[in-house]
Design brief:
Shape: elongated
Largest sheet: 7 strands, antiparallel
Strand order of the largest sheet: 3-4-5-9-8-7-6
Strand content: 15-25%
CATH architecture of the largest domain: 3-Layer(aba) Sandwich
CATH topology of the largest domain: Protein Transport Mog1p, Chain A
Helix content: 40-55%
Radius of gyration: 24 Å
Order of helices and strands: HHHHHHHHEEEEHEHEEEEH
Number of helices: 11
CATH class of the largest domain: Alpha Beta
Number of domains: 2
Structural class: alpha+beta
CATH superfamily of the largest domain: Mog1/PsbP, alpha/beta/alpha sandwich
Length: 344
C-alpha cells in the first residue's frame, strides 16, 4: 500500500502543476495532499465493491478519518481551482483520477490487505499517523480557519533548548502546532522560528532570548514600565503600539504587547501585525512572538490572519516550561542597579 501511495505522489509531481507559480510554496504540498486523499477514497470504494461484507467497515474508516480532518476535498478543490483555473483543474483532476484508477486496478487487494488498509485508515491515519509533509498540509487545510484548534486537538510538536548557542543558557520546553515548520532563526537573538502551512504560510512564531545586562527584572519593574509608558519605546521604528498588559508564566513577571509595523524589504513595503509575550528569568528576557504579514496593499488580510493566530499564541506561550527553575533557587536581585529593558 505504501508503494501505491508513493506512486500517487510521483504521478502528481509529473503533472504540469509545478510549472504554475501562482503559489510556488503551497502548490506541491496541496497537490500531494489532494492525491493522498483521492487515492484513499478510491481504495475504500474498491474494497466496498469487492468485499461487500466490509462495506460498513470501509464507511466507518472514512467517517473516522473525516472526523479528524474534515472534508479535505471540499476545502482543497476551491484552493486548487484558484491556483490553476477551472479548466486546467478539471483536466488535472480527470487525468489524476484515471491514473489512480489504473494503478489501483493493477494492485491485487486480498481480504487481508483490505482489512489492514481499513485498520490503517480508521485507527492510524485518523489519529494523525501520516507521513510528512502530507500530514502537515492536511492539518493546515483542516484547521486553517482556526489554528488554535489544531493545538487543542493534540496535534503538537515539542521543542527543547539545552542552554547552548542562542538560548544563552536558558533551558526551556515549548509546544507548537504540528503543521508549522521549524526553521533556524536568522538573527542572533532568535533561537528558533516556526512558519505556518508546513513552512509556506505568512504567519510566524518566534522564540527569542536576550540578555538584560545582568539585571534581574521584578514584577514591580514591569508594572512601572506599564505605567510610565516606557513600553512604547520597545516598538520597532515605524511601528505603533496597539495594546499591552502584564502577564506571568511559571510564576515569573512579564508583559504582552500588540503592535503593527510597516517595513521595506527588497524594495517592497511589508505590513506585519504582531503579539509578543515576554518574561524575565534571572538576567534573561525570553519572548514568544507571533505575527501575520502581507504586502502593504493587502494589509487587511494580515489583520484577519493575525486575529486567527492570537488564540494560538496564548496557548504556545502558556506551554512554556523552565525545568531548571525547579532545580536551583532564584538569585537575589542586586539593590542599586537600574532596570534595563531590552529593545526588540
Amino acid at each position: 500500500m505504501r508503494t501505491f501511495l508513493l506512486m500517487v505522489w510521483l504521478l502528481v509531481c509529473a503533472t504540469p502543476l509545478k510549472a504554475i507559480e501562482v503559489n510556488q510554496g503551497n502548490l506541491p504540498g496541496l497537490a500531494e495532499a489532494y492525491g493522498f486523499v483521492l487515492g484513499q477514497k478510491l481504495s475504500l470504494e474498491r474494497i466496498a465493491r469487492e468485499y461487500p461484507d466490509l462495506a460498513r467497515d470501509a464507511l466507518l474508516a472514512r467517517l473516522s478519518f473525516e472526523r479528524t480532518f474534515g472534508d479535505i476535498h471540499g476545502k482543497l478543490r476551491p484552493k486548487m481551482v484558484a491556483f490553476m483555473g477551472q479548466e486546467l483543474f478539471q483536466q488535472f483532476h480527470s487525468d489524476l483520477n484515471a491514473q489512480l484508477e489504473q494503478i489501483n486496478g493493477q494492485q491485487e487487494i486480498t481480504r487481508e490487505i483490505a482489512e489492514q488498509f481499513l485498520e490503517e485508515v480508521g485507527n492510524r491515519r485518523a489519529k494523525g499517523d501520516i507521513y510528512s509533509p502530507t500530514l502537515e498540509y492536511l492539518l493546515a487545510i483542516r484547521f486553517g480557519d482556526n489554528p488554535a484548534q489544531e493545538y487543542t486537538k493534540g496535534f503538537r510538536q515539542r521543542y527543547h533548548t539545552d542552554g547552548t548557542g542562542k538560548s544563552l543558557g536558558v533551558i526551556l520546553n515549548l509546544q507548537l502546532p504540528k503543521s508549522w515548520q521549524e526553521l533556524e532563526g536568522n538573527r542572533p537573538h532568535i533561537v528558533r522560528k516556526w512558519k505556518s502551512e508546513a513552512g509556506t504560510g505568512m504567519e510566524l512564531i518566534m522564540l527569542q532570548v536576550r540578555g538584560t545586562e545582568g539585571v534581574s527584572v521584578t514584577r514591580a519593574d514591569v508594572a512601572e514600565m506599564m505605567q510610565s509608558g516606557e513600553i512604547e519605546g520597545l516598538i520597532p521604528e515605524g511601528g505603533a503600539l496597539l495594546d499591552y498588559g502584564m502577564v506571568s508564566v511559571e510564576g515569573l513577571p512579564g508583559y504582552f504587547m500588540d503592535f503593527d509595523v510597516l517595513m521595506e524589504r527588497a524594495g517592497m513595503a511589508v505590513y506585519q501585525k504582531m503579539r509578543q509575550y515576554s518574561f524575565f528569568y534571572h538576567d534573561r528576557m525570553i519572548s514568544v512572538q507571533c505575527s501575520a504579514g502581507a504586502l502593504e496593499s493587502d494589509y487587511e488580510s494580515a489583520e484577519v490572519r493575525f486575529e486567527r493566530v492570537k488564540p494560538l499564541c496564548v496557548q504556545v506561550f502558556n506551554s512554556v516550561v523552565l525545568p531548571d527553575k525547579y532545580l536551583r533557587p532564584e538569585p537575589e536581585r542586586r539593590g542599586n542597579e537600574g532596570v534595563l529593558m531590552p529593545a526588540i
